[in-house]
Amino acid sequence: MSTPTAILLIAHGSRHDPANEDLRQMAAELGAMGDYPIVEPAFLELAAPEIPTAGDRCVERGAGRVLMVPYFLSTGVHLVRDLTAARDALIARHPGVSFLLGRPLGPHLLLQQLVKERVRELESDGPPPDLASAAEMAVSYAPMEGH
After folding, report:
1. Of 25, 28, 91, 146, which alpha carbon lies 20 to 30 A from 69's?
2. Which residues lie below 8 Å from residue 133, measured CB to CB, with a gap of 6+?
3. Quick one: pLDDT at residue 42?
4. What is the rounded distance in angstroms from the CA atom of residue 63 to the CA atom of residue 5?
5. The 3-state secondary structure of the chain, one letter per residue
C-alpha cells in the first residue's frame, strides 16, 4: 500500500480572521471531496497554523508526498523566496517525504473568468458588498511595523 498524498493549501495570513477562515473552509471542502485523504491549511504569517506546523501535520497523518499549493495570485517575493524556503525547511526536517511547491493561482483563464464575474456583479443593480469603511478598519487593524 502506498503512502497518501497530502495537499498543503498555503495563504499569506491576515490579522482579519474571516480572511483566514476562507482558506480553512477551502481546505475542509477539498478534504470532504475525498480525492486526497489529507488536506491542511497553512499560513505564511499572521495566522495559525504556520507552514512548518501544517507540513508536520501532513507527515504525522501519514503523507509520503505533500503538494504545496500557494493560494496566491502571482509569483511574487513570498512565493519565490518565502515559500521555497519553507519547502526546503520541510524537506530537511522530513527526509523521505516529497514536498512539491506549485504555481500561484494566476494568471489562469479561470481567474480571468472570476474577475469578469466580479465586474458583472458590480455592474448589476444589486447592492455592492457590505464592507466596513476605511476609518472603521483603521481602528480594528492598526498597521504593525513590517506589514
Report:
1. 146
2. none
3. 98
4. 5
5. CCCCEEEEEEECCCCCHHHHHHHHHHHHHHHHHCCCCEEEEEECCCCCCEHHHHHHHHHHCCCCEEEEEECCCCCCHHHHHHHHHHHHHHHHHCCCCEEEECCCCCCCHHHHHHHHHHHHHHHCCCCCCCCCCHHHHHHHCCCCCCC
What pLDDT was estimated at residue 135? 72
**Cβ contact 85:55 at 8 Å:** no
Mean pLDDT by 10 residues, the chain (147 residues): 92 95 97 96 97 98 98 90 97 98 95 93 77 67 57
Would residue 62 be called left, alpha or beta, if left means φ above 0 and alpha means ψ between -120 and 50 degrees? left
Residues with catalytic function = 12
